[in-house]
Amino acid sequence: MDPATITLIVLALAAFFFISGLLPLAVTSMAACTILGFCGVLTPKEVYSSIANNTVVLFGGMFIIGASLFKTGVAQAVGTSIIKKAGTSERKLILAIMVVTAILSSVCSNTATCVTLMPVVLGIAEAGNLPPARLLVPVTYSAHAGGSITLAGTPPNALVLGALTAAGLSGFGFFEYAYAAIPVTIVAIIYMITIGRKLLPTTTGTGMIDAKTQAAIDKIKAENGATGVQKDKSKMYISSLIMIVVVILLFAGFKGISMSMAAVAGAILCIVTGCISEKDAYLSVDWATLFMFAGMLGVAKAMQKTGAGTIMAKFFVNIIGSNPSPYLICAAMFIATSFLTQFMSNTATAAVIAPIGISIAQAIGCDPHALLMTIAMAAASSFATPMACPPNMLFMGPGHIKFNDYLRCGIPLCILSCITCLIVIPLVWPFFP
Predict the structure, then answer these.
(1) Three-class DSSP category at 175
(2) d(Cα 221, Cα 229) in Å, to the nearest integer?
(3) Distance CA 360, CA 335 (A)
(4) Which of the four, 90, 203, 329, 418, has the lowest number of CB atoms within 10 Å?
(5) What pLDDT, in 10s, does the model give residues 69-106?
(6) What is the pTM of this model?
(7) What angle is formed at CA 80 by the lines to CA 278 and CA 147, rounded to 5 degrees?
(8) What does the alpha-carbon distance between residue 311 and residue 374 come to, in Å, rounded to a whole number?
(9) Is 123 exposed, middle or buried (0-12, 13-18, 19+ CB in 10 A)?
(10) CA distance 198 to 188
């Protein structure tokens, strides 16, 4: 059996296990690259070389820095103060909540951000005599959109970057995603304070958190360093300063200082200054995401090396027809990615589709960056189902949110996000530069 066929079979099996959830995502990913090694598609040196990838290291550092903001109470303080200043107007509350959530999610875990803000939002909803769902749904929508603003905001952004570098192409900068993500976030906010607000559920409830939901919340907080919040104001200032300096280093791109170096240095400072303990730092790193990312980089490398990606691309292009429009392909990839991410992990979705996107772009002779950015933004559009992401599921109980509530509010937002991307992305990353 030729290497390309072996690679396609392994990719198909990985996709099956990603969708079915029979195996953890990281196990599936690492198994895929290991099998490719045993089959001789990847050399022993290539199989696990991606574990030391700079983006993997960058993500590890940013996990710790983001956790320190929760541990010292910075995230909670910022969220509480800004949201409370919005008063009791539902429209102003939705606006304030979404802006705060988007900002925090851009540099911290979007799931941890949602969980941290949930008790604040529930308290405000109760005080304003508002159904909790009318504030909780905007929180999770803003977290998804805002999380895609930076490289560290959400794992799919890193997977897209990894697919580009595995193909020998230039990657996206740390803040480059913002060119597409900020317009999408703005559209999401405008939608939620206008049309979306009319589609929000009106079911009333106490907003109480049951034992099962509380257990899930505690687990997420523990994984993201949000438990045992400190009350030392000096450490709040220190952790904030560390984040600001790291962001400046990432944005400025000083010669001789890589993004991974800046993130790791910031993480070390957070531990040394006591903003987060060594134990909590280890717990805050989402190891499953890192290993999944590293494993799928190996699969992407195999697809590029064997020509498997080209085979899939030609098959896709033949279905669409000869000389397909890049806009049509971008729309198709957005729809496919967005649809899959409603039912499976957005990280897994991006891992499977990103390498295929590169091959499709190369097959029609256009720059892959526009198509890959489209895939990244589509992977963040986890709006339409409760199983699309952890916050959607967690909010169902306290917010008394039903499956159809997410469908009713989320599908129009997915469509608006797609239209926004098709307008903005080709302007920033031309198909034929």
Answers:
(1) coil
(2) 10
(3) 15
(4) 203
(5) 878 887 777 767 766 676 667 888 899 889 989 988 88
(6) 0.76
(7) 65
(8) 21
(9) middle
(10) 14
